[in-house]
Amino acid sequence: MKKAVVLLSGGIDSSTTLAIAKSEGFECYAISFDYGQRHKIELKSAKKIAKHIGVKEHLIVSFDLTKIGGSALTSDMKVPDVQAEGIPVTYVPARNTIFLSFGLAWAEVLQSPNIFIGANIVDYSGYPDCRPEYIQAFEKMANLATKISVEGKLKFKINAPLLYLTKAEIIKKGIELGLDYSLTWSCYNPQGNPENPVPCLKCPSCIYRLKGFEEAGIKDPLVK
Questions:
Q1: Which tens digit of pLDDT belongs to each residue from 128-153?
Q2: pLDDT above 80 for 84
Q3: Is residue 221 assigned to a domain?
Q4: Segments forming the whole domain that contains residue 138
Q5: Could you give the CA distance from residue 49 to residue 183 in angstroms, rounded to a whole number?
Q6: How high does pLDDT run on average in the chain?
Q7: How far is CA 23 from CA 16, 17, 151, 164, in A?
Q8: Any idea what the CATH number is for the domain that residue 76 is in?
């Protein structure tokens, strides 16, 4: 069976990406990250999604980006209630580059030519590391920087199947594949009991999620 390493945050996009990879016949190895994010609750969702979809292995890598800061997700900076102009303060410096690098390292060990990421440039916050030119550049770098590629044993491909889909289209695709969105988490600013929080429904990530479910004509299972 062909292998794939899938970046899994536990949100709508990464969970749907995992479901797509699984539906395409890949043996999936999910990788998630505990990087000091304020919405660490997403890791619980990632574990649930990995089990729900059925991955070969789920790896959680821990490191502390709060030591670098520079983002509302890794510092005391306030999470905005609305999407601002330009790249927002919820951008985490070099996050996808860091995540993809860990995914690439694991893919090289697994001898898995395929790496999946839930990047999207339609209903998203304008992060520069979600753009198609970034995905293409990382793929080129991956094939220049790894022993297994330089020796000609395999060529890495960075798959971003959601790149040009709206959030509504992504949700519909997930439903079609049997994905249970009640297991996912999107909110950047969880409220209430830390062990059983509720989404704030105000942050940019919540807004995009609500918009997606509304346009898909489906009730968001996390909104009571």
A1: 999 999 999 999 999 999 999 999 99
A2: no
A3: no
A4: 3-216
A5: 6
A6: 95
A7: 10, 10, 31, 19
A8: 3.40.50.620
Please list the helix, strand and coil fractions of the chain in percent, rounded to the nearest 5, in that order. 40, 10, 50
Tell if the pTM clears 0.85, that is, is over it.
yes
115 forms bridges with which residues in the sheet?
Answer: 5, 158
Helix (H) or strand (E) holding 60: strand 57-62
Contact 118, 7 (CB under 8 A): yes
Quick: pLDDT tens for 140-187: 999 999 999 999 999 999 999 999 999 999 999 999 999 999 999 999
Residue 224 in domain: no
Neighbours of 147 (CB within 10 A): 8
Residue type, 12: I
Q: How many domains does the chain have?
A: 1
- Cβ burial 31-69 (10 Å sphere, 16+ → b, else e): bbbebbbbbebbbebbbbbbebbebeebbeeeeebbeee
Answer whether residue 119 is part of any domain: yes
The answer to whether the beta carbons of residues 24 and 48 sit under 8 Å apart is: no
Domain presence at residue 18: yes
State the Cα–Cα distance between residues 168 and 172, nearest whole angstrom. 6
